[in-house]
Design brief:
This protein has nine helices and 20 strands. The longest helix has 15 residues. It starts with a strand and ends with a strand.
Length: 381
């Protein structure tokens, strides 16, 4: 196998690959990055693995069976198409592609070549998510009436200086969409859509997408957003997230039904069902690369197949077409710290986001003073 994009977040993939290589489940033969390879003590480059600066040269030289692609989002589609054309199965980092047209192109290439495409939504391998899905299908929540997520993180100035595409809507004429919904908190959105698929008994097909987008610094994308997806069938989904939070909320998925509410803290895999007084850890995550290898060897179902990410990509379509986020400032925003680690905090944002997640009501509908009317997208069938 090979890894394209071996630096940055690619080092996480190198650490995931290393034990599988050591166990003989795979053999790492190629690493690709446009920059010199960074040292990763927990995952040294194994003997015999070759390094490249161009993925096409790697594909021609080592002919891998499986390729992990962990490059900037706006580069995903052309690299992924090259990987499939070379006859390799693919693990593609999230977000997979920036719009539904690209999603259809990649799906068509996967079908034409017969190669598998898994998308890097690793939280879909969570045993806690599986337990929540079982509770939904088993009727422990009654009829599900709404699904929501709330997350409040902080990102310093250095985060937006980490790369030329950080905080950008486009780069070199190609969509990047490096906002809170599309990148750092994409897992929260995808978790909700996965639960909605279970609750509705069918893949989510958005009939209406509404989004309010805000920013507390001069970037091109949202650092605070509230999204509501109304599917053609099944319960509505709401995501209320920020990178300018007051207090840290790692990420909670709230599933409300006629029989009560369940809460999944998805980064920590802690779950509380309606009849449980406290959240409990549900340990265990099935790695997406290991799942892809099992799919190749024994036909195991993929946890995050490309088709499952279509509703998430419909959200990206809406973000791509939406106007630029509203810039908030003045007394609403405070700066904490100095230099590259300075963060900007949106006052009162945690309470606003929690209220939206609890009620399913957008901030503008609830009369929040700084909120603006949402952008509305009606996805094509």
């Amino acid at each position: 196998m090979a890894l394209v994009g071996a630096n940055g977040h690619g080092r996480w993939h190198r650490r995931a690959i290393a034990p599988l290589h050591a166990a003989g489940r795979l053999r790492l033969v190629g690493l690709v990055d446009v920059r010199p390879l960074e040292d990763e003590p927990a995952a040294p480059v194994p003997p015999g693995a070759r390094t490249f600066t161009d993925h096409r040269a790697m594909l021609a030289a080592v002919r891998p069976d499986v390729v992990v692609v962990c490059t900037p989002p706006h580069t995903h589609l052309p690299i992924a198409l090259d990987v499939l054309a070379a006859g390799a199965d693919l693990l593609l980092e999230k977000p997979p592609v920036p719009d539904l047209a690209a999603h259809r192109s990649l799906s068509a290439a996967s079908a034409a070549t017969g190669r598998a495409v898994q998308v890097g939504f690793q939280a879909l391998g969570s045993a806690a998510l599986a337990a929540l899905a079982d509770a939904v299908t088993g009727g422990r929540l009654g009829t599900v009436t709404g699904i929501a997520t709330v997350a409040a993180w902080q990102r310093p100035d250095a985060y937006y200086a980490r790369s030329p595409w950080a905080g950008r809507r486009t780069l070199d004429g190609r969509p990047v969409l490096d906002g809170a919904l599309a990148n750092p908190l994409a897992h929260a959105v995808m978790q909700c859509l996965a639960v909605a698929e279970v609750a509705g008994g069918t893949p989510v097909v958005p009939a209406r997408i509404e989004v309010e987008r805000y920013r507390v610094r001069p970037i091109e994308v949202d650092d605070t957003a509230v999204l509501r997806v109304t599917p053609r069938h099944g319960p509505p989904v709401l995501a209320a997230v920020t990178l300018a939070g007051e207090d840290f909320v790692p990420g909670e998925v709230l599933v409300t039904g006629t029989g009560g509410r369940a809460v999944l803290e998805y980064p920590t895999d802690r779950l509380r069902l309606p009849d449980e007084p406290e959240p409990r850890p549900v340990p265990g995550r099935y790695g997406l690369l290991e799942n892809l290898l099992d799919h190749r060897a024994a036909g195991s179902p993929l946890l995050a197949p490309l088709a499952r990410t279509a509703p998430f990509t419909a959200v990206l379509d809406a973000l791509r077409n939406a106007p630029e986020p509203t810039l908030l400032g003045g007394p609403l925003v405070t700066a904490v710290g100095d230099g590259p680690q300075r963060v900007r905090v949106l006052r009162g944002v945690n309470a606003v986001l929690r209220a939206a997640a609890r009620t399913g009501v957008l901030p503008s509908e609830a009369g929040v003073p700084w909120a603006v009317r949402p952008y509305v997208s009606i996805p094509c069938s």
